[in-house]
Task: inverse folding
């Protein structure tokens, strides 16, 4: 049958004494390698759970106990870093902040952008092939009119005129759509 130990008995246990003596040092060690305060706290507890399960340290002096705890802490840190490297994670607070700050990437905004892109593609078909090519090179590839002129083998002025006419035609199409 399970008997509940009194608080005094728990405070006098070897593990409690070990924890009181060395927990701060182990926590400080953890913070060198682990950024998250919560993760460091959890790892300190894991170190002392190992101490509770494996009580080889009971007859050792303080220095030997601390050395053993640091070795266990080192292994816990290495395990944690491997786990994080294999399965990167983002804190919930960070994810929520990012989610609400970056409305540009919200599903609703992405759907609206996709609709806009579909409408633009439908309207671009109404341009001549040369105008389509010029618009694609100017806005899709971010080229200057001089560079576009070399690609399509025409003068810079012709590219400017064709680009201007294409944009005016697209504006009028969108204006008619709005009415």
Result:
């Amino acid at each position: 049958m399970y008997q509940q130990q009194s608080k005094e008995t728990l405070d006098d246990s070897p593990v409690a004494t070990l924890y009181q003596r060395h927990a701060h040092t182990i926590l400080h060690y953890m913070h060198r390698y682990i950024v998250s305060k919560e993760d460091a706290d959890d790892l300190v507890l894991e170190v002392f759970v190992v101490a509770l399960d494996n009580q080889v340290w009971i007859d050792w002096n303080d220095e030997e106990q601390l050395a053993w705890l640091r070795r266990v802490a080192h292994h816990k840190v290495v395990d944690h870093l491997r786990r994080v490297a294999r399965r990167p994670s983002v804190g919930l607070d960070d994810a929520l902040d990012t989610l609400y700050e970056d409305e540009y990437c919200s599903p609703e905004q992405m759907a609206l952008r996709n609709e806009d892109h579909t409408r633009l593609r439908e309207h671009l078909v109404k341009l001549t092939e040369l105008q389509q090519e010029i618009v694609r090179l100017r806005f899709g590839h971010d080229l200057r009119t001089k560079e576009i002129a070399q690609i399509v083998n025409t003068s810079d002025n012709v590219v400017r005129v064709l680009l201007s006419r294409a944009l005016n035609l697209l504006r009028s199409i969108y204006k008619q759509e709005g009415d």
The CA atoms of residues 29 and 159 lie 65 Å apart. The chain has a mean pLDDT of 84. The longest helix spans residues 62-86. The radius of gyration is 33 Å.
